[in-house]
Amino acid sequence: MNTFIILLRGINVSGQKKVPMAELRGLLEKNGFQDVKTYIQSGNVVLRSLFDAEVTALKIQQAIENYFGFQVSVLAKSPQEFQQIFDDCPFDQNKKEKSYFTLLFNVPNKELVNTVSKISYPNEEFIIDEACIYFYCSTGYGRAKCSNNFFEKKLKTTATSRNYKTMMKLLSLCSEY
Fold first, then answer.
1. From 169's CA, which of 5, 64, 78, 93 has a CA 20 to 30 Å away?
2. Number of domains the chain is built from
């Protein structure tokens, strides 16, 4: 049995793609996943699966589409992969605790990464690697120009962002297995 951290992209935002967590847990359990736990309403799940990450993500995506009637991008990471992304944050501890981790569904094109890396906005810092964009904004994420959508458009990939607290909580939920 494999443990995965599952991130759903773009649910329960501004009344769009509503997915109640209790229904999601039940749906995932009915589809054969075990020990399903959710954290807050933004699409964070920890579960155990008989399948690898790719098949697990696909099965969850299909289950959500069949049950709720819309498509959702699903990212599945092992606790070890997730921990590595967290540990690789290049910012000092003070900035790290106020950072956002924009997890990438695919490795971005190197030319696009080079182009985007030259963009600069006051009070914003980011570093792009193959699995994550580490983002810090001294004035807060809500005022940032470099949002999740900004990075998706510039890098032509799907991504989903989580703050430090959510990353920590998901890792702690994995330790309960």
1. 64
2. 2
